[in-house]
Amino acid sequence: MKRKSAPDPEDNHECESSMSPSPSQRKKVRWEGKSRVTATTTVDSDESSGEESENSTSSQKGNFFNGLMFSVCYMLFSTAASDASTDSIDTLPSGRLGCAYYEPIKRILFVMEDTQETAYFDLMRMLLEQVDPDVVLTSSKADDGFIEMINDFMETANGIFQICPFKEFIPSKGRNKLLSLSRLSNFPDESDDIPPSSETESSSSRPNNAYDFMRCRREITGDPTAIRWNASIRLANFASIETSPLCLGSIGALLDYILRERALSALDDEGIEGLDIKDIEILCLDQVMQINADALLSLQVFEDESHASVHSDKTKEGLSLFGILNNTKTTQGRSLLRTWLLRPSLSVSEIRSRHDAVECFMRAENLTTANALHNHLKGVKNVPRIMGLMKDGKAKLADWQGLVKFTFHATMLRDSLSELHRASEVKVIKKLMSVLDLATFKEIGIKINQLVDWEDSSNNDRVCVRPHIDEDLDNRKHVYHGIDDVLSTVAKQICEIIPFGFTTSLNVVYFPQLGYLICVPMLDEWRTESGVQPLEGWTFQPWDELLTFVSSNVYFKSQEMHGKYFHMDHHIGDLHSTIVDRELEIIQGLLEDVLECDGAVRAACDVCSELDCLLSFAEASRLYEYRRPEIVSENSIEIIQGRHPLHERVVDTFVANDARVRGGAGIAADVAFPDNEQWNSILLCTGANACGKSVYLKQVALIQIMAQIGCFVPAVSARLGVVDKLFTRVSTRESVSKVQSAFMIDLAQVSLALRNCTARSLLLLDEFGKGTLSTDGTGLFCGVLQHLLNRGANCPKVLVATHFHDVFNEDILDPEHVPVSFRHMQVMFTSSTGATVESSFVCDSTSAASPAPSAGTLANSMNLRPTDKITYLYRVAEGLSLNSHAAKCAEIFGIPTLTVERAEYVTDLLSSHMLNVLLDEKMSDVERSDLEDAEAVCRRFLAWNLKEVEVLREGYVKTKLGEILRSMDIDAS
């Protein structure tokens, strides 16, 4: 996106509110020769700036700010992650980010649900570069590094950066403001579409459904509950942010800012309801694929399992795509892999470069070297965290050891890279060769090793300096280590001058910060009220009176020590403190030298984390027999013998299947098909219950994700175009907090997909419409497919699974004319003797890209006996299956046989339109006899020829009916 030119400063105005910073705390930003005020604090302006603000406000009336306003909320938190190489626990700084921005020209509010952010704020940088906002708002509780990064960007872009109080980013307030927008709270006005009639105008008429009732109530009372309920339901149609507190908080702060700007202009202040926001859309990055939380959950990209202990709130990764691909050895590598899965790349060149690296590491001649590289990465600790601790002066001995290990393993990595065959053109190898400054790293490692005494540091639990580094420090340490002999000599000299019998023993001891003291045992007479009675010239040292009278020793300083031995306190002094202080000075000098290489170390760690992920991909691809996909510019997906990467791990045998679909091949679309074969945008799969339809749909999406993160895929071959957005209607996350039924949640997911999908998007619809009346669900299902097909060249790639078999006819979805690829999952039936039951439909074709099947190729229902058994083949074939075989599925999964047989009997009656047989089952013999008589009368009446001449005579029909009734002994009266 090109950066737009800065607008004229006279068309804008300063933010005047209760949050205005004081003049001493404002930051000036140059804007085309003039200055704009950028608020960098959350305190109110003082009285000295009141007159200036008033004049500024009055001069800016009538000029509503028309720049892009961006609001972002970032929260830093820490999680514990075990290091792959040791049993130690590293604290990983991590954060989540949610944001929103307002485009005032189009009057569109863009929102992005909460997502993970890296330690270098890569996502935020991409957002700022893509949106290029004029105003950025963030919370006062945001990380200092995050605030500094935004401030630097806005200074370069000549924009406004304002830090707002945290209370403006409260999620509940943001949600309330969002639901108050007229775009969500107002009901659609359908009064113009309803023709007037006596029924609608009658006051006695009643509404036909809940929506009519709520509309009538709104017209009379303006029910706020109905308005809020409607807004909360419609919100899910625009964006899935109900579970994104940071995004909701950002929206609240953004709307507050817009309202303040409106209040300063000449516009009428109508409050939040007066904001004319035309639409709410999802903020999508143009560099990465958009995958929302529902899709991540449905596809099991991540899966958190609770700890086995009920007393622990920790979680571990379960069976997930991240779990099977995660063979990383570094904390940074694990974090980067998670980021790649959250946001797969859209850059074809970047994806291909990752595939080149994985292919290089998988070559037979490079296996040993790749394993060596991975082992060296195992020794690389979380060095960016270590450098941050050193910068803050909080580094411990383990941090220094980790840095030295990094310098060693970086050298070994550099040596191992030269042993790779045909790796000169691999991008990550070239990057690593350029950032591994071996001279600098070796110099750092040598300096630390020569300066730090590891053994002494471990014993003293602090960083100590080696001998022969500082002469004065060595002398002090020599005296400190020989102080025992000095104190023994002094004690003997004092014993010679004290009165005989004063004490049984005497010691001279040294206490840091207290100096040298005479220690004698406590006497019984000193425990009385008179207290301790020192000798003449001695001074009692009550350095801890409580311990003095409780302990068995007391401490004195003698006059001789102040005199003859004065040099002990004055010249020798507090040896320990002076040694520690001197060592700190030396370590500080070493720290300054290390921090000069901070940028080089961090750059090397970033490339090492990328190498860690790619080596992990190579290991998983080699272990699970993945193949390299071909990334093309065409908008298509072609998978040959694809497999589900998770499902194949938990079953003994997995049946691979093909899939071919092409975006933009809707109705009346002019699309060139490869190999003269028709590829449709919609692939519709039918079949029996539990036959593998959902697995088939999910495996296509997972293969696409794996390809776009740079990993090989579980397929014989794959030719894939880039997918920009992935939406699913597969699983339903129900919760009482949503105040929505399962069907409403499904509708929200589909509505979100229809509003945001493009021709390059991938949409999964698994049994959409099943949560309501079958006729309504069928209508919605057909309506969605027809809507997507009518998009023509803008039709996304859609994978559908359904049990609505009655729609495949000429009046609804004609298989011969709609551009839909019909597929079904094959099953096999066997009799009680083991013989295969012949099917009325046999699919001989194995191609998955043929045109839509004709009506004669439909797999019709078969006449099965109760003893026949069903076998799932899990193989995709052309055509439609018009029977779900639910009864057989129920029998397999434990439903009693009698219940299953009854269900099959009722199903047969329904299909043959003989439901009246069920009504006859509870009739008595008398009732059945009366019913037969009545039927006979009706049949005789129906057989009567009413065209005869005598029938037209008056009274003839009555007379004739009386004769019939009397003949059947029925009272004609």
TrEMBL record:
InterPro entries found in the cross-reference section: DNA_mismatch_repair_MutS_C, DNA_mismatch_repair_MutS_core, DNA_mismatch_repair_MutS_sf, MutS, P-loop_NTPase
Organism domain of life: Eukaryota
DNA-binding as UniProt keyword: yes
GO CC term (a single one): nucleus
GO MF entry, a single one: mismatched DNA binding
Occurrences of domain DNA mismatch repair proteins mutS family (ranges): 761-777
SUPFAM superfamilies tied to this protein: DNA repair protein MutS, domain III, P-loop containing nucleoside triphosphate hydrolases
Protein name in UniProt: Muts domain V-domain-containing protein
Organism for this UniProt entry: Gymnopilus junonius
